[in-house]
Amino acid sequence: MTSQHDVYHFRDASDGSEWWRSAVIYQIYPRSFADASGDGVGDLRGIASRLPELQDLGVDAIWLSPFMTSPQKDAGYDVADYCDVDPIFGTLADFDALLAQAHARSIRVIVDLVPNHSSDQHLWFRQALESAPGSPERNRYIFRDGTGENGEHPPNNWESIFGGRAWTRIREKDGSPGQWYLHLFDSSQPDFDWSNEEVKAEFRRILRFWLDRGVDGFRVDVAHGLVKDQDFPDYTPNPDSASMGGEETPAPYFEQVGVHEIYRDWRLVLEEYDGDRALCGEAWVSSVDKMALWVRPDEMHQTFNFEYLLAPWEASELRSIIHRSLAAFSAVGAPGTWVLSNHDVIRHATRLSLVEESPQGSGIGPDFPDVPSHSEFLPRAHAATALMLALPGSAYLYQGEELGLDEVHDMPPEVRQDPTWFRTKGHRYGRDGCRVPIPWEAGEPAFGFNATGRSWLPQPERWRSLARDVQQGDERSTLSLYRRLLRLRKQFGMGQGTLEWAAGYPEGVVAFRNGDILVIANISASPVTIPADARVLAASMPLSGHQLEADTAVWLELQGDI
Ligand code: BGC
Predict the structure, then answer these.
(1) By three-state DSSP, how is residue 181 classified?
(2) Mean pLDDT calculated for residue range 408-413
(3) Among 81, 67, 85, which residue's Cα sits nearest to residue 29?
(4) What whole-number distance in Å separates Cα of residue 165 and Cα of residue 41?
(5) 221 is catalytic
(6) Which class for 545: exposed (0-12), middle (13-18), buried (19 or more C-beta within 10 A)?
(7) DSSP letters along 502-539, please?
């Protein structure tokens, strides 16, 4: 396994090219970031108004979750028009203004592309319903005849990721019960047929539409799911596994080899453009070796390291996943793309301190045992971030983690909105708990999310003390820690750096050098002694002398040979 002699080098990106190799990218969930219109749902003008705060934080880029025209059945991941902005978020002019303002502050902008499925309100799907079985309009999606004497049973037993069956039967134009269409997610999200050339051409057009406007890249939704096993065999997933895939033997709708051809094609489209545009894949596959297939030199530039996200807070597991990730990604010349939180998972501040596990996508609710409080989870949350941001490669942050926000597990059932909650009849809570609008100013309505106090999901009162303005200027706050780590990471070139394991630390410690920085994370329950003659650049919690308490990480500048 881990050898003390492994050193991973990453190509220098200091001339600004290949920025994605080392960038810290901040995910904005537009519904919940900042709401200029005051209707309770965040918007593009709201985001633009908070760019100074993002610049102050020190991020290199932002990724915007979908803001395109959508009936919002899955919070925008159900797109009805890929080339326009939904009125709840603003207009294309607002998008152009946001892009220009972000660029003026040297912040790059990545947009979310949802190619696996559209909304059922997309013109193509409406045309498909109006057209006959086998017609070109229907063949853009996956329609099949049912089984059983009168086609009354679905074509196979596939289940939706959100619960319930993955097929819905339509009524044909004459009112008779008709064919079934596939939707890996909600019934309002029909899957495209990616063996259809028209679908491929349409997505090239959509890529160019946003590239022409000047975006710096795309986060690609369900990047492992576009191609389906054409035999459509029955399949029953392991009930305990992550809902978005990650099985050793992949589902017949995930990880099919044909997906890679699509990204090779897209890569060529991106390369027609100057400015170093990038693709980041959301591929929930079981191991980093498999993830590396998405970032071969002629495919995507980054792929989220979900094995790292799912790793338990345990030193040998962390060393193993870091080691295997760097080996797998550097073997194909790609950077590591570290991530701990996003809009689909339990916020890592809470998650890493849970005693019981909840599979990805299932969320937690008021009945979940031993949900840690802020003071209980904070040390570990800080240490996990200090560890992640010390690793060479790129890293993603999710809005609100820089404030130490927790998962809102205690929201009342009647306000929940995730289709997972409805489709499983409340059996799985889903992802609303990580999507609550974030607090900016403690004394303002909706904690500064807007001026009216409206909020599409209610904010917990406990977040008042976590508002950004409360943390600003407090040296011990989570916000100050994130700002310091990002500044040092840049100053010492750690994103473009190297990783070399440091010897001589106890089993429960993750310790490595990244260039001149020695990083020590104490994952064990007992204190650890750190070198006395090194300069402390950052500590995830205040230090007592040269002792590193449990759940604490430190960045030290080496002075001489340590
Ligand atoms: C997105 C989810 C979304 C799903 C369907 C995911 O991977 O991140 O938020 O519900 O794709 O589009």
Answers:
(1) strand
(2) 97
(3) 67
(4) 30
(5) yes
(6) exposed
(7) PPS--TTEEEEEETTEEEEEE-SSS-EE--TTSEEEEE
Confirm or reject: Cβ of 112 under 6 Å from ligand 1: no
Most ligand 1 atoms within 8 A of CB, residue of 189, 243, 344, 422 to mutate:
344
70, 23 Cβ separation under 8 angstroms: no
pLDDT score of 2 more than 50: no
Tell me the three state secondary structure of residue 429.
coil
Active-site residue (options: 56, 248, 261, 272): 272
Q: Residue 9: its pLDDT value, please?
A: 55
Test site for ligand 1: of 65, 73, 77, 120, most ligand atoms within 8 A of the Cβ: 77
Residue 16: what pLDDT? 61
User: Looking at ligand 1, which atom is closest to the CA of residue 78?
Assistant: 12
pTM summary value? 0.97
Say how many Å lie between the CA of residue 185 and the centre of ligand 1: 8
pLDDT at residue 3, rounded to an integer:
47
Q: How far apart are the first and last CA of the chain?
A: 24
Task: Compare 4 and 220 and report the one with higher pLDDT.
Answer: 220
pLDDT score, position 558: 86
In the reported structure, the alpha carbon of residue 174 is separated from the centroid of ligand 1 by a whole-number distance in angstroms of: 34
Per-residue pLDDT tens over the stretch 291-315: 999 999 999 999 999 999 999 999 9
The token duo for 418 is 């995730």
Residue 372 neighbours by CB distance under 10 Å: 19
Pair of tokens at residue 43:
């918007």
Q: For residues 107-130, give the mean pLDDT.
A: 98
Where would I find the H helices in 51-173? 51-57, 92-104, 123-130
Per-position DSSP letters for 318-364, written without gaps between them? HHHHHHHHHHHHHHTT---EEES--TTS--HHHHTT-SS---TTT--
10 pLDDT above the threshold of 90: no
When computed from its CA atoms, the radius of gyration of the chain, rounded to whole angstroms, is 23
Annotated catalytic residue 234: no
